[in-house]
Write a structure and sequence with these properties.
The complex is a heterodimer of chains A (679) and B (73). Chain A is mainly alpha-helical. Helices cover 55% and strands 4% of the residues of chain A. Chain B has 73 residues and is mainly alpha-helical. Classes of the chains: A mainly alpha (679), B mainly alpha (73).
């Protein structure tokens, strides 16, 4: 090291040791004590709020949970699904981490003698904290541009959002100024390589005026350090103590760790129906602790709102707004509930105040909100709990919902058509019933739509013909089959769902059924993912999986060409619910001549047809019809046909085509019908 | 040139200091309501915060003009 370097570093160390370190140590001592208190108070406050909720085990499969935790918290993989917000968040997060690492290394380097002469690690740490700050500034600028200039409708600006951005800017600017003053005030020529190790502060130091004496300059640097350290310390306090969006840095990763590992869209079962005093949720304490953590972990990013078909079609539901309103209620009502003994609590009711019935019944249970949430929040689970309260506690359900339940209760189907006519569709098809044939390889679970709806009866018949052509022995339950219970469960009638589910499971056990083939993704989801909670463990396949498999095995060959352009609509319960995206496409690619063109929203981003959540049987009185919007999206592809693998979707798309007078331009088919044509 | 440069430096300094004071005062205001202060006091709190902000600004302007270095870098 030459003499100019030594003089510079001696001057730097004087300022660092006399001015910077005492301030930092003073703050650190104060900070450490306060931080411990703040941290304890932070976690204690939140823990107590979450403990208001019901128990739920989320401590299983720790390795899987940790993997998800790190991939979201550090790599931001779920946020990268959208490039601009992903880049912005990544820059701010990693810029902050790099600043902290650099600062901590530099702070401790003085005590271990790394600073005079400066060792490589000290210099790299200086570079790291400088460039980390630049990354944060870049991310911050992107955030300001997006939040205040581009202004996407899904973002709602609160004073806290502006405060955090401005506060971060103040800390960074004062940090660069402090270091710039320190460099400028040293009074000796600055070594040229410092340009590399402090690229920003070095430039700042060139424009800084200094005082004529060393003592005055020392005082000046004191000022600067305090002006930087005070806002930085108070920012930590604000971050930990106040309910602000910045708390997501603790709460969102925690929420990801405790995320549901069950298949998506499976409501929490109510296993104590006979003993329970209350059903569902009408105050915050009736949610589970994880559902309360969900509320606090919401960053208000609005991705769920953009994906929600109910919101996009102009209905009053916004999953983002509902979550934020429930969070406000938790923060408002939670401390009051905690201040009195449990038996004297008078919680604030949610229905009619925090949540309206219109927004609750607008949900199509399509899971799009859960799919896009970067921090694994599950609005659908909460909506199910609120519906359960309305239906089971106060019998408030739209009139069409009442008809569904009545039909299910008396006839085992949501249309209320006579149970005896359930097997009429199969007349003349040579289908055996399980009561007639002892042990077929496969049970074909027809479902209510395939049994009673005229359009879907044709689909069931096509599927039968395919199975027969493939020489696969199968049977049906006939009149012994009842609705799987999906419509009852989705409208909140858990009691009716369990009656149907238990009756079906009993029949399936009686016949020793092992393998079930379903036509409807809703039946598939319910039998596969929801029946196991009630003792119904079966191998359940959707027909698209089954057909894709026999096509690849060569058991079924498609030879007749269909020279059409088709677009495929992913059903929510096949796609998002069970991640079956490839099998239907494999079937379409197996049909000679058929060309597939994708809609903009396809696979996991697919737009609901509007029939889920019991809405298949309900009128859409508010906003635009969701099925028409989806039909429009299909028409935009210029396809001649739209294919699907769900009876609900087929009905809704067929109706959409008719309502939009597009029958000459487009037709809706089920995939099994196309396969049958091509055999 | 030196006077002009000094004026620019003072304005920059004031902008940074004002930002720091502003975020601290807004932070205090939001924290008070977050701790449960009734929103009926919002007007009063904002009045107090504005007064404190003005006082801080007056102090900073006079302080920086009086003591800011007069020598060139």
């Amino acid at each position: 090291m030459d003499s100019s370097h030594q003089a510079f570093w001696a001057g730097q160390e004087t300022y660092i040791l006399r001015v910077f370190l005492p301030v930092i140590i003073g703050f650190l001592v104060l900070l450490m004590g306060l931080m411990v208190l703040f941290a304890l108070s932070f976690w204690w406050r939140h823990y107590r709020l979450w403990r208001l909720g019901k128990d739920e085990n989320r401590f299983d499969q720790v390795a899987t949970r940790l993997k998800g935790f790190f991939s979201v918290a550090l790599a931001n993989i779920t946020i990268w699904k959208e490039l601009y917000p992903g880049t912005m968040h990544f820059l701010i997060l990693w810029g902050t981490i790099v600043v902290f690492v650099g600062k901590i290394v530099r702070l401790f380097s003085f005590w271990v003698g790394l600073s005079l002469p400066p060792q490589d690690i000290f210099l790299y740490a200086s570079f790291a904290s400088e460039t980390g700050g630049v990354l944060v500034l870049m991310g911050g600028c992107m955030a300001v541009l997006r939040r205040y200039i581009i202004k996407p409708s899904r973002l709602s600006n609160k004073p806290e959002n502006s405060l955090i951005l401005l506060w971060g800017l103040a800390i960074l600017l004062t940090g660069y100024l402090t270091k710039g003053y320190r460099i400028a005030a040293v009074g000796v020529p600055i070594p040229s390589d410092w340009f590399l190790w402090a690229p920003v502060s070095y430039q700042v130091s060139r424009f800084i005026l200094i005082l004529p004496s060393e003592s005055l300059n020392e005082l000046l640097v004191w000022h600067r350090v305090l002006i930087h350290a005070l806002p930085a310390t108070l920012f930590f306090a604000y971050l930990i103590v106040c309910h602000s969006p910045i708390q997501h840095i603790f709460l969102s990763p925690l929420n990801v760790f405790f995320r549901s590992l069950k298949p998506r869209g499976v409501p929490n079962p109510m296993l104590d129906l006979e003993e329970a005093d209350t059903f569902g949720a009408n105050d915050v304490s009736q949610f589970t602790w994880k559902q309360l953590l969900d509320l606090e972990a919401c960053t208000n990013c609005g991705r769920c709102q953009d994906a929600c078909p109910a919101h996009v079609s102009g209905k009053p539901l916004s999953p983002r707004r509902m979550t934020q309103n429930l969070k406000e209620c938790l923060w408002r009502d939670g401390p009051k509930l905690l201040s009195v003994p449990p038996d004297q609590r008078q919680p604030e009711p949610l229905m009619g105040t925090t949540v309206s019935e219109d927004e609750l019944w607008a949900c199509t249970a399509c899971m799009a909100c859960e799919e896009v949430c970067p921090v694994s929040i599950q609005p659908l689970g909460r909506i199910m709990e609120l519906r359960r309260y309305l239906v089971l506690m106060v019998s408030k359900i739209p009139s069409e919902g009442k008809h569904i339940c009545k039909g299910l209760q008396h006839q085992g189907n949501p249309w209320g058509i006579s149970r005896g006519s359930r097997e009429e569709w199969a007349k003349n098809l040579g289908v055996k019933k399980l009561s007639e044939e002892a042990h077929p390889e496969v049970l074909f679970w027809v479902g209510c739509a395939g049994s009673f709806d005229d359009r879907n009866k044709k689909v069931a018949a096509s599927l039968v013909k395919i199975l027969q052509a493939s020489a696969i022995p199968f049977g049906i339950l006939g009149t012994e089959e009842s609705c799987c219970g999906d419509p009852a469960r989705r409208v909140g009638n858990e009691y009716l769902f369990q009656i149907l589910a238990k009756a079906n499971i009993e029949i399936l056990h009686r016949y020793g059924v092992k393998k079930i083939l379903t036509m409807c993704p809703h039946c598939f989801h319910t039998l596969k993912n929801e029946y196991p909670a009630f003792g119904g463990e079966f191998q359940v396949l959707h027909y698209t999986q089954f057909l894709a498999e026999i096509l690849s095995q060569g058991k079924l060959r498609l030879s007749k060409p269909i020279n059409k352009l088709i677009t495929y609509h992913d059903s929510c319960y096949l796609g998002r619910g069970n991640e079956i995206y490839e099998a239907p496409r494999k079937i379409l690619h197996s049909i000679p001549g058929l060309k597939l063109v994708e809609m903009d929203r396809h696979r996991n981003r697919s737009f609901c047809c509007g029939a889920g959540g019991g809405r298949m049987w309900m009128e859409e009185r508010i906003g635009r019809r969701i099925n028409q919007m989806r039909t429009d999206q299909a028409i935009q592809t210029k396809a001649e046909w739209v294919g699907t693998a769900c009876p609900y979707c087929l009905t809704m798309l067929g109706d959409g085509i008719k309502e939009l007078n597009q029958e000459e331009r487009m037709a809706a088919f089920d995939l099994s019908e196309l396969v049958e044509r091509s055999i | 040139m030196g006077t002009f440069f000094r004026a620019i430096a003072i304005l920059t300094e004031l902008a940074v200091l004002t930002t720091a004071v502003y975020v601290l005062l807004v932070g205090v205001k939001l924290a008070l309501f977050d701790f449960g202060l009734n929103h009926k006091y919002q007007g009063f709190i904002e009045f107090v915060v504005i007064i404190l902000g003005c006082l801080a600004l007056v102090f900073l302007v006079s302080h920086v003009i009086a003591f800011y270095p007069r020598v060139s870098p």
